[in-house]
Amino acid sequence: MSPMTPMERIETAIRLGRPDRVPVVPIIDFFAARYGGITQHDMFFDLAKADLALEKTLRDLGPIDGQNLTYAGLGRIMQVIFPTPPQLPGVGDVPPDGQFQFVERSVMGSEEYKRMAESNPLRLLMENITKYHAEFRGPLGMARAFRIIISDTLKMRGSIKRWLRKGVVSTVAYNITFTPMEYISLFLRSLNDFVLDIFRHPEELKAAARALMKPMIMQGMLMIRLSGVRAVFLGGNRTSATFLNPSQFEEFALPEWLEMSEHFARRGITVFLHLDSDWTPFLTYFKDFPRGKCVLCLDGTSDIFQAKEVLGDHMCIMGDVPASLLKLGEPEEVDEYCHRLITEIGSDGGFILSSGCTVPPDAKPENVKAMLQSVHKG
């Protein structure tokens, strides 16, 4: 039998089958930029340079079956779509080789939950975005913002196609969205205010989140159409067990995680549940998600081996070589951990080897090579 293609290998694992070997699909842009000799600013804002840096990385350290979330070329879009612009390398006071980070700020008060629930939530989101983006105010400003989004996503779509011809699958491209609670916490209210709102304004918070459901789904569907990739990256952190207890999760977060996952799955869109922080106490809830249509992506904090026990016959598991191991460990340690993942989680299929969240830019090249090469060992 001839070897599977990378696409066949990944799709087989997602559908809980057993491919010819475990596929390896890291988030590698930050590392590839530094290894490939370009700055993080170049990676975000110069797609051609980012592609060349990734090509050198894979040529030197080993092939991959695919990339998970990609940031290459996403810089201008990230400046446009978030209410508070993130700090990006080479922009403002951030050095060109610095690391991007979201800036948490309460851009709306709790009294605006009622307005969001009773009026057009998109209008309120646009107001909050233009509050910190004077250049996008008014019809001409909004037209400029949309031109940036369309222009840059089409460039990235071309890159995705070129990488696919080279045998590297883009599993989710840049198709990012969030559940309403995650979005409110990270971009509208900040963590501290969000936690207080759970206790002080629970019904108003839930009503606003219900109103945000449609815009969050629309964002995901728009990116899917632009990229041509039938998958979505549904990011989670603030509704994890690190921040919520089980009763809070059931009340505030679980219904919308289920609704969004089911919406995309019904349309043949694979849902990559990218779960940062600790979700171990909540693993049993994911048995109610669409079987064989979601991927549980863990970052090294949750217990991935327990995830296999709970969900191994229900959902593909992806992860979770920790960033700390890739940066501070030795190649033998990386290889040993990858071997354990491959044999204990991937032996009967339904597993994709990946970095725990992203490969750090200052990871040791020999450690990254050990991770990429581990799937090729007998």
Explain the overall architecture.
- This protein has 378 residues and is an alpha/beta fold.
- The protein has a single domain (6-374), classed as Alpha-Beta Barrel (TIM Barrel).
- 52% of the residues lie in helices and 9% in strands.
- Strands 3-4-5-6-7-8 form a 6-stranded parallel sheet. A two-stranded parallel ribbon has the order 1-2.
- The longest helix has 28 residues, at 138-165.
- The two termini are 17 Å apart.
What order do the helices and strands come in, and which of them pair?
Elements: H1 6-14, H2 29-35, H3 40-45, H4 47-61, E1 66-67, H5 75-81, H6 112-118, H7 121-131, H8 138-165, E2 169-170, E3 176-178, H9 180-200, H10 202-227, E4 231-236, H11 246-266, E5 270-275, E6 294-298, H12 304-311, E7 316-321, H13 323-328, H14 331-344, E8 351-355, H15 365-374
Parallel strand pairs: 1-2, 3-4, 4-5, 5-6, 6-7, 7-8
Helix pairs in contact: 2-4, 5-8, 6-10, 9-10, 10-11, 14-15
